[in-house]
Amino acid sequence: MQQYSGFGLLKHSLSHHENWQRVWRNPTPKKKYDVIIVGGGGHGLATAYYLAKEHNITNVAVIEKGYLGGGNTARNTTIVRSNYLWDEAAHLYEHAMKLWEGLSQDLNYNVMFSQRGCLNLGHTLQDMRDIERRVNANRLNGIDGEVLDAKQVNEIVPILDCSSNARYPVMGASWQPRAGVARHDAVAWGFARGADMRGVDLIQQTEVVDFIIEDGTVVGVKTDRYGDIKADRVGCVTAGHSGVMAAKAGFELPLESHPLQALVSEPIKPILDTVVMSNHVHGYASQSDKGDLVIGAGIDGYTGYGQRGSYSTIEHTIQAIVEMFPIFSRVRMNRQWGGIVDTCPDACPIISETPVKNLFFNCGWGTGGFKATPGSGNVFAASLAKGEMHELAKPFSMFRFHNGALIDEHGAAGVAH
Amino acid sequence: MFLIYCPHCGEHREEEEFHNHGQAHIARPLDPDSCTDEEWGNYMFFRKNPKGLHHELWVHAAGCRKFFNVTRHTATYEIKEVYKIGEQPKVVE
């Protein structure tokens, strides 16, 4: 597999960029694999990549019913941060953040990770108390964070309405300078390329229709295009459809799938060089390198798999954005879409063994999975390689809903569930 | 945006007047103290979450504030039936 470099770019320019190798193969699956990963989104591909790279397990297939990175990886608002309150979650997301910081070099693929900082605004006294608490907790966990007052916030984002005229005046914010955004598609493609060059088979347009379970142990999967494929271990990373997959394996998960929407504006000149989030008025925005404003909304209140959102939710979000940024009131919106997020009662993921032996689930990331992509893949790969959960993943067992050890991250999750 | 028929008001109203409370027909254990952790956890948190027909609980929050059940398809959002609390669904697959 060819390495990408500036020199390579120059070399290929001489042949009008017509001789680049394909980025990954399109193989026919073998009869048996050491590990099968169901779901070829960012988390699944990252899992395959780290299995091959760090655990030397290359007899791996990723089975994807659509195309790689075509689900929530393609639909999120690309925000990366690690300012979570509780130790368990903070360690997991910070693990991801550290991987993000070297990811482009590691993958030899530019994921356009831009650490432009993230503001979580506070509009009430209680917001500010929660922000103090969260920032202090972050700093004790070695995660960067600062509490800013309204004046300091306004210095970072001059177009933000921090005046007392606002319906919900900005009182301050938490600020994580190392947070930022990344190019979502590049993340999936980079991991896919890295996994493929190490021998992982990426099987697209193939749906896993059932698990093959013998005596309570998974021994393979049934697919619609290639029949049965055997595997020693199966990792299921299917985000919004995890409940559907769990039902096939014969158990329930503490998940409900909801549509979550996002929208982008027409491209405009650079105006917002950081990420601004507000839990209180409920909207968040950043500006992509292309110039469009990337705006996120809350989830729809009902369970749904429709991959479209309700109009009332968009309306609330736009109200919040215009409230925060009056200057955006006449910006026209270009596209709006929805993805299906699997929300957990405690707003934390499930990275877990299941009632079926050798079947592992990585799901429940809800509204904030993108930021964790490398960390999630990294700890899930370690768990699949050893057959027991990675130290950072242990607190995220699905059985925490039986023993009561929930990790309540509704405050830091940033999107109302 | 979809319209929901409130069986108490006898009218179709906009989705925004209503609030969804998730899966219906979840019976609270009669004697919670005798439940195992697993039984209680299953009752509290574990859900069917199907892609297809879903029997779910709604409340007419900005209306009569009464609860009722709905059978809805979770991919098409088509409402198959609306029935009162205590009744059983007629549409099952």
Automatic annotation (TrEMBL), chain A:
Keywords assigned: Cytoplasm, FAD, Flavoprotein, FMN, Nucleotide-binding, Oxidoreductase
Keyword Flavoprotein included in the entry's annotation: yes
EC primary class: oxidoreductase
Cofactor(s) required for function per UniProt: FMN; FAD
Main location: cytoplasm
NCBIfam families with a match to the protein in the record: soxB (TIGR01373)
Protein name per the record: Sarcosine oxidase subunit beta
Organism: Marinomonas ostreistagni
From TrEMBL, chain B:
Domain of life assignment: Bacteria
InterPro entries linked to this entry: SoxD, SoxD_sf
NCBIfam families documented for this protein: soxD (TIGR01374)
The protein's name in its UniProt record: Sarcosine oxidase subunit delta
